[in-house]
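The protein record reproduced below.
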Amino acid sequence: RGLFIPDELEDLQRLLWRLAQGGGVMATAPSLPRYRSSQGLDLHALFITFCLDHGLQYLLYTYLQHHLTPRNCPPLSSQSLSESQPWFEMMVKIQEITRDLTPALIFQASLTSAQVLLPGSQASLSSLLLEGHSLLALAAVMFAPGGIDQRTVDPQLLKMALAPHSKLKAALFPTTPRGHGVSSDISIYHLLQSLHPLDPSRLFGWQTANTISSTTSELPHFSSPQLVQMFALVENLDFLYYLRHGRPSFAYATFLVQQLNNDCLALQNFHVASVTSAAVCFCELLGVCSLKLRVDVRAMNTVLNHWNSSYEASQEWTVPVQFCQLHSLDLSSVYPAHCAQDGHYIHFLLFVQLHSFPPQQVRKLAAGFGPALQAHLSLVFQDLHVRPQAQRAGDSGSEDPECLSTAKASGSGDQPRELFQVLLQSQDQGAPCRFLRRQSLLQRCPTLAGAEPLACLCVWVLTSVDDVTAGEATTHLIEPAQHTEWTLQDLSIIWKTLLGRGQVRPLLQGFQLFLKDCPLVLMLSMFDLCCDYRNFSEAKEKLLDFQRTLITLPLPWVEAQASVLLLTLLERCSSRYDLHHLLQLLADVDVLFKSNPDFRMLSQLSQLLQDSDLTLSPRLLQCTSPSVQQEEFQATVDALQARGRYTQARQVAELAGLPLLQEVNSFRSKPQWRRLETRVSFWKKCQEQLKEDGPQPGSAAQFFLSQAELLDTQERCLLLGLAAHWLSLLHPPPVQELQSLEERQWRSRVQLQLLTTSMERQSVFNLPGSNLGPDVDVYRALVEEFSFSHISALNTDNFLSTDGLPAPVGAGQQDPNVQSALTPEEREVLLLLVGQLLDQGSVHEASRVCRYFGLHHPDLWLVLRCRGLASGELRPQPGSLSLSMLSLPEDQVVLELQRLVDRCRHGATYCKQVLSLYRLSKQELQISFSQVSSEEPRSVLEALLQSEQPERFRKAQVFIRAQGLSPDCVAQLVCSAVTRSLLTPSPTSTPTTQELQTRLVFRPSEGRDSLIQLIRLCEDPNLVGARLMEELGTVSLRDLSCVELLIVAHDCFSLTCNMEGIVRVLQAARHLSHAHLAPGEHYSLLVRLLTGVGRYTEMTYVFDLLHQNHRFEMLLRKKVSSSLKTALLDYIKRCLPADSEKYNMVALCFSMRREIGENHEMAARTQLKMIESQPWDWCVRQATRCVRTAKLVSLQLHFLNQGSDVRVINLRPAELLNAVVLTVCCYQVFVVSEAYSYSPDWAEILHQKVVLKGDFVFLEELRRHRPLTSSLFEDVFKVKRLLSYCDDVYTRYRLAYQRSLNDVAENLLQDVKTSNYLNDRLSS
């Protein structure tokens, strides 16, 4: 599975052992496709190195052949491996030939093989020619690109190498022009004369170039008539032979030729429709016209129809038989005889009975049947009697011949017992159908049901079931069943009775026979599929088809019977599994009949009860009243609660619309219930669970109200707020009920405050009261979350008016204590609590509370008057202002508002907000106060920022402080404003876009200072930056708006030096540049991103992208800042030191003329040096090579003149050492070494010349040309070198072992040539 521990991945041998357990390294799907070692090598490179280090050549060859090529494995092309292991390069080259047999690869493989097989040689044609391997070089050059004609080798060198092969040299280098030389009189056939098996005098006679052959013939082949006649075994091959040999085309052609002309099978079976149809289809599939075959078959069937024994043929034979009867002739027996011959006894009996054949003639014709049918017919004829034909015809005046009759013997009053007797007897009745139905009931035979659909269906069903079921289905009949006129009511009773007993098959068969188009057939099929086969998917299709039928053709009676069937089906479900699937089926199909229960609800209830031991009540499965259903659901919920399944109980109650049940009883018994924090957490959990379940708001509110009556005052306040929250979700919300709940809550709050104050007074300890403690904090937070102040239905404008507000005592009003029925203590507490509401800004709630209890609060009156003055509903009080202040009406209102602010004790913050909004509406926005106050503070702030006033940002800052807007709200406004302005088109496009620009909070045309002021409106600019980063996902990543969003986000984070935010912006910028902008060639956006962010050191990759795509000059099109200039110069110096063109472009942009001149001067000098040195350098090298070659040739001539056989020309690398040893003087060694660029082994040469031969003159001459170092003398007198001249291998090994020359001894033991011999000697 590719799972390995780290130790195995670090140890290659352990890794290979693990891989071997799972298929080995040769597996088709490697277990480590992305493996990387600590050195950065993949598995292939590690395995190749492993095989090279351990000499596993054969394993490496198989591995490379199985997996790799130089194209998909870079280590195979490594130059270092090729130099250290030449055989490895040869292996790779040879394997490349097996995959791609191209001349170039063969050429490279040939050179590499030559380098390995000829040690010391180089992988080049010149080396092969110089070393004397001319034929090998010539064979290799044939595969070189362009062949030998391209002259991949020096022609002069090739001529010298081919000197021993004169004819080959003459052929490759002809002295005459090509095409004009004398043609050779020797052909290949002359050369083959010495090969006796291929005697050209008797063979190759068909070749025109063979002038030796004395016979002329064609090239022998297997289809040659002469050879076929003499030696071939001829057989007629059918199409199966070609198929066995994989030759479908020949098989097809042979089959057409052999088989298509043979249509005997179809003609032999012309009366069998299946055979003739198959034959015609077969011909058409083969592309052969079947017209002739079809015409022949039709003609033969036409002839046969005259002798057919079918019922249609009997109609044609009626006329001949009637003709015989009218002319007193013997009745024609042609048709009955054919019926007897074909075994059609029914056609036979009907025909002879219909035409009143004489019994004697019938018995004679019956002899044509088989033995079995003859026996049956004889029994039939025994119960039949004969009577005169005239009597049946109603003519009693003549004695005609006897004929078959259904009359019994005289005096017999029994009913006929045989089917055929009943059928024949019915023909004598006035109402045959009624007679057959009566006989069907009497004899319990469904086959005799008759032809009227409704009556026949009833009779069929009753006679198809047992007597008990039939009796139960007919108990409602007044008269006997055989005399009943059947109606739909009777069928409904039969339907319900049989379904109740589970006998659906008789109903299904009866409807299919008599009312096959009735939709109830589909319902019966569905019943059968569910009960007997448990095939609910197919049953669902039947039910859907039934519903579609009812939609197009409404049938009330059919719908009623379908409802009965469904209810019966639910009752007969034998297991919970079947019942659950059936209810799910009915819920999916959404079956809605008038008299059926809610199947969707029952299905959901069944799903909820799956994990419990409860089952659906049978009363729920019937069509019961809603009250009964509620009782059953309530019983189910109680049972679930008793079993501790509270979650399921809640879900069932929500499903049925019951009042939500509580789990308080189980929690009240726990000790933790005494803690306020526990109880508050429990109610919060209930609220969250209800919110998740999504019940009806009325049910949820009723749940909390029912619990509020059972709890203490403190919790009652909380639950009343929760109940009001759920009631506010109704549409429309019940305002009166909400106000009643609010009044109840405030009474409880007053009582709670009184109780707390009383406990503090009576206690001898310093109680923390209601202001401290974690329990109280949790409680207060939840009460505040579900406060009545958040219910918009209660916060109407009429509560912000002083109309109806309780007036102070002495103003013509009654005592507020009498009005509100509050005690003085309660009134003081309520005044305190209302003051707290005003301080919190909950003016609506404070006004409502004072009206509920008839309480006059002076600060509330001031607050409402302040708002009334601002909205224009009230006027300033006359005489309240001095005459010096009466300049403008607006000033009067402002001064009056300021006076009220100074007088207000509780709610001063709200009054200040009113004053701020009033000034803003009149002076800045030029709209009414009512319009401003009705809007959200965020909208007002946005309208202020959209104005054209120069100090709008300062006034917006003042408004934010006055209204107490949170930093998150301001950040959201700023973010949306920036995003909208960046997505709005340019103002120069159309008048519409110009109008849009004027309504923007931030207009890019105002510059960066305006943007910074907008960002600073938020106390924490980081919030703006974070929101802008989130907005990146909503804009196109290849648009200018995305780049601008990143730049603005960077400005936000830079204002607070938030390094985490800055890094986040830089990461997003890098991803945007590499993944979207650069691939989409949006280079202008890249430049904008770079210059907008301004972090050039961190964004060097933008310089790289522009340079790689040749768009570097785009950085110079705009006004370049000093920081960008510095970054550009630094980038060019560090990354592009040799790009003088780009350097000149940047220098020219920055007006750096002196640097441009210095750059041009340096480039000119460099070019001049290159121009001067290039041809002379080549000439010097060529001249030096010529001089060395001349010296070598002179030395060779010197040896020849001296009669010496020493050869110094065309030496191979392996021959150089022997050649220099054979020289006489030291300078000759220098000549040879310079000519071949060979570094001589001076230690070996001195050993041969001085030590062995005593030529000290050579030593003196060498001393004059080069210094003799101590290491050279050590190498000369080394014992190892002396041992190499010992021919006795065993002596050499013994001396090396005695003198501790371990490396020499080890080499002898490992050498293939000496190891076997030494092992044998040492073992003996």
User: Anything to note?
Assistant: The CA atoms of residues 809 and 815 lie 6 Å apart. The mean pLDDT is 77. Strands lie at 385-388, 402-405. The first strand starts at residue 385 and ends at 388.
